[in-house]
Amino acid sequence: MRYTYRLRPGATAQAALSAEWGRCRWLWNEAVHQQKAGHKPTFCKLSKLLTEARARSTWLREGSQVAQQQTLRTYALALQHAYKVKGRGRPTVKRLKNTLPSLEYTVRGFTIRDRRLRLAGGITIPVVLSRELPSEPTSVRVYRDSLGHWYASFVVRRETQPAPVTDKAIGVDWGVTVTATTTDAAYDLPHLGHRRRCAAELARVQRRMSRRRRPRGNPPSKGYLRAKRQVAKLHKKATRQNTHDARQWARRVVTDHAVIAVEDFKPSFLARSTMARKAADAAIGAAKRELIERGTRAGRKVVLVPPAYTTMTCSQCGTRAKERLGLGVRTFRCGDCGYTACRDRNAARAILATVERDRAGADDVRHVNTSLRVSGCARSEPEIPRLPAVGKR
Length: 393
Description:
Blueprint: E1 2-7, H1 11-36, H2 43-56, H3 58-61, H4 65-84, E2 102-106, E3 110-113, E4 116-119, E5 123-128, E6 139-144, E7 150-155, E8 169-174, E9 178-182, E10 189-190, H5 194-197, H6 199-211, H7 222-256, E11 259-263, H8 276-282, H9 284-297, E12 301-305, E13 331-333, E14 340-342, H10 343-358, E15 365-367
Parallel strand pairs: 8-11, 11-12, 12-15
Antiparallel strand pairs: 1-5, 1-7, 2-6, 3-4, 4-5, 6-7, 8-9, 9-10, 13-14
Helix pairs in contact: 1-4, 2-4, 6-7, 7-9
InterPro entries: Cas12f1-like_TNB (IPR010095), Transposase (IPR001959)
GO molecular function: DNA binding
Domain Cas12f1-like TNB: 293-351
């Protein structure tokens, strides 16, 4: 698990972290240029090049070799994942203006003593330990958010608490009007609209930021930076509210159900549609991530079902409608058995029926295709195999 704490770096520590991030960012961009030149930079090749570069450059030797190696390792893994997963973009250049600092250290690159984080390179930062670490951390990620706050995310081992014994099952369908519709109405996650409530204040601050923007080539004014910080603060407030609601909802669902059938819905395409603002407010991705993570941690059976034809399939008789349902049609009616129900509720029941019908045995997370029987299970690692969805939803 990851335990995240707030850091309180001084001016000297912030300058040292920024300088370290500058070296790591330069190495990342050099690896991207090598990949664009036709080479396939593996971690072994990048490590050899790093050794040669540190021997030539005093600027690189001033930084931590642990952080620089971890940057290249992250790049190599991202590139390998891009080759394996269809449609996954390759790593791109990290620009100073658009990228937030993020440094990773292994166990030989940091220590915690007297509530202070000591990083390789002589950087010492006070840590706000709001809770004690359950075990010795194996790695740490030091990063800065859009407000300029620094955080340390430690990877630790924690004993899992046994989940209550139950035999209930639940199906989850994602939407925009209601974030999550389940087979049991008591466990629905409503659309709470945190971003919509601060839309007026956000628009006012964004107009202020636009008025104070200087022409290109001139340094930003203090008023512009102050307005930009207020915009970031409003965005982060809504994000934290969505994350909190998703965690509370996922905890209730995982505690009361042994089998959780989740629609494998990817909301990224909604960002390019007219529903982009409402989809961002619904935070489907955050709720889905919390549900899967908590379910696998509690030892529940979490099954990801492709969304193909879930809206068009009757949950009572299994008959598939011949025509697609428009988004304006909110009630599903089966032409064979006459079953009538809410569109999203029927989809959630169809998702659960798919899992029960296929008797999908899995230890943690796997995909179930509605038309093909698949054996085996997938891991809860980032390399989860994705079954192709047949047709459109």
